[in-house]
Amino acid sequence: MTDIKQENENIPVNYEKLMREIMTIYYIDAKTARQNNKKVAWITSGGPVEPLIAMDIIPVYPENYGAMIGASKMGVDLCKKAEEMGYSSDLCSYARGDISCATVNGGPIGGLPKPDMLVCCNNICGTVLKWYEIQARYFKVPLFIFDTPIVHTEFTPEMKNYVQRQMIEYVQFLENATGRKMDWDRMKDVGKLSVEGQQLWQEVLDTTISRPSPMTAFDAFFFLALIVTLRGTSQTIDFYRGLRDEMRRRVSVGQGAIPHERYRLLWDNLPIWYRLKWLSKEFAKHDACLVADTYTSAWCGSLKYVDENDFIGSAAESYTRIYLNIGVDKMAEIVLSMIDKYGADGIVLHSNRSCKPYSFGQYDIQKIVERERGIPSLIIEADMCDERSFSEAQTQTRIDAFMEMIRTAKGGS
Amino acid sequence: MYTIGIDIGSVTAKGALLSGDTLLGADYCFTGYNAKTAAQKILDRLLEVHGIDQTEISGIVATGYGRNSVPFANRKLTEIMCHAWGARHLHPNVQVVIDIGGQDSKAIILNEGGNVANFIMNDKCAAGTGRFLEVMARALEVDLDEFGALSLKAEQPEKISSLCAVFAESEVVSLIAGGKKRENIIAGIHEAIGSRVSAMASRLGIHPSAPIMMTGGVAKNIGLVNAMEKALGAPIIVSPHAQITGAIGAARLAQSSG
């Protein structure tokens, strides 16, 4: 993105640069936590981070780090290293990357700061359970497992009680690990900030309803980092408010992310981190804009279940009913509603060798979309971090053929 | 009006020259190391044999995996679209096209206008591709061109259960070691590919009465076509121009400037 002058302040704001700065400071804080007498908790991407923020514990996300490993093309080397350690090449490439990276002095930013505790919420997958157990043994630190049953159809009162009770145990775990008591007033504030942050992230994503869309899913993949890592902080709110306003400004002047947007697509599953630029060019070549995706919207997708005045009380439901923890029928409903909301002409599904819960059910979702909306769909076989599962020539042919089909369907030449 | 279609596949490069809707000539060569050279060779030969000057050609479309290595093409389109157009050109009623190429296989559903309504390609695996057949031909020490005729002599096709080309090759090696008849092994290989490709094609939802055409060089293998018919439970149309279907489609598409 280019620098833009904001009307009021007359200073250029480059949100990419700003976000990089925020993330750099965040990682410096995390890596110097010990000197500052702060604790570090590693947490899964879908885990309830707000109690950590409220207790001044620095959350660190191995999955966000996995994305960094993928984007910096270190995935293959780290995955190979994990395979040498004895892990299967079928294991998730985030897990392989994180497990092997912990044992070497290297990786992006020179590795993650060592954890004082681990928080594992299985609302995103089952792999995290074993992954975090391995890391708990390796680092010899306590592990809290936050178990969220899959909501195939309904969220039952039994489920609610079960998850709710764990929220209390979770806070007790943090109190034991830090030797401090939870400040419940602070927790309330953090909950409110978290909700506001999620609302703003949704507003950022919703600017793409406009034609042309001011941003693409590739931009969203980048800007996602804050809502994942610093949810519940005022910094996140300020950033997304600014970003939203900037996107709205672009909408008001008709500035599209793709120079001649003709086709609008929906992306499903995690990004192919090491091929973001290439993919973005391939789609842009066809005047196609990836206007939305099921991945980045997962961090604001369960807002309807949150009560901002009773964050902890409602968190059981909002953290259990996230996109990856519901039945395929429900996932398809969300996909259909996104197709309608963002006016998608087609859907691109990344069948991600690493992410089983995300990729499972995609054939069904594809069928449902074709039946209910009659729009073309494309499956790209790849992996989010392990480049060995990606073939450029094959992917290119599939994208080109898919775009030819959409162009014909829409009456283009 | 002359048009040319150039289809640079992973194994073979094909070219077709059309005068209006009439096929004037075709040419082939191995793609080899340099796709650009192969494309140029085909163009030169087509022009020379038919005594046509390049200025008389109104359009050239390149397709296939090497489509971006054809500098003289006016447009580049995927083999999906070109096979669809080529198949319709050869047989106006075709509704489903199955193409088994060197490194992939695909099924295409055509809409009424002959455009691609939907398509599916094999996942990242050599099973069900021409490469699979090449590997097997090597293991069996048989020329690939003889595969079709030999498999027709099979009494009882052997069972090849593995979908992976590497594992299937070791299965074939075991069958050879077990003294099984070559004809039966080849017929078994055809059945394995037939069931793999038909399962993939069926995911598109093929109408039982939809006319199906097989295109691509592999369609010359009568044994495999029979196995595909058996697996799909439907007859398959094969044109004598099967191998150049993509090139013909490309030449047809070259008629419009699009």
Cα-atom radius of gyration of chain A: 21 Å
Number of helices of chain B: 8
End-to-end CA span of chain A: 31 Å
How much helicity do the residues of chain B have? Answer: 25-40%
CATH class of the domain at 15-182 in chain A: Alpha Beta
**What's the helical proportion of residues of chain A?**
40-55%
Low-confidence runs of chain B (pLDDT<50, min 5 residues)? none
Instruction: Kindly give the count of domains of chain B.
Output: 2
Based on CA atoms alone, the radius of gyration of chain B comes out at: 18 Å
Mean pLDDT rating of chain A:
94
**Which CATH architecture of the largest domain in chain B would you pick?**
2-Layer Sandwich
Secondary structure class of chain A reads alpha/beta
Structural notes for this entry:
The complex is a heterodimer of chains A (413) and B (258). Chain A is 51% helix and 10% strand. Chain A has 413 residues and is α/β, with parallel strands linked by helices. Chain A has a domain at 15-182: Rossmann fold (3-Layer(aba) Sandwich), CATH 3.40.50.11890. In chain A, helix 12 (276-285) links the parallel strand 5 (263-268) and strand 6. In chain A, helix 4 (75-85) packs across helix 5 (93-101), helix 7 crosses helix 13 (311-320) and helix 8 packs parallel to helix 11 (234-252). By secondary structure, chain B is of the alpha/beta class. Chain B folds into two domains: 1-91 and 244-258, ATPase, nucleotide binding domain (Nucleotidyltransferase, domain 5, 2-Layer Sandwich), CATH 3.30.420.40; 93-238, ATPase, nucleotide binding domain (Nucleotidyltransferase, domain 5, 2-Layer Sandwich). Chain A binds chain B through residues 351, 363, 370, 376, 381, 389, 391, 393-394, 397-398, 400-401, 404-405, 408, 413, and chain B through 65, 77-81, 104, 115-119, 121, 123-124, 203, 256, 258.
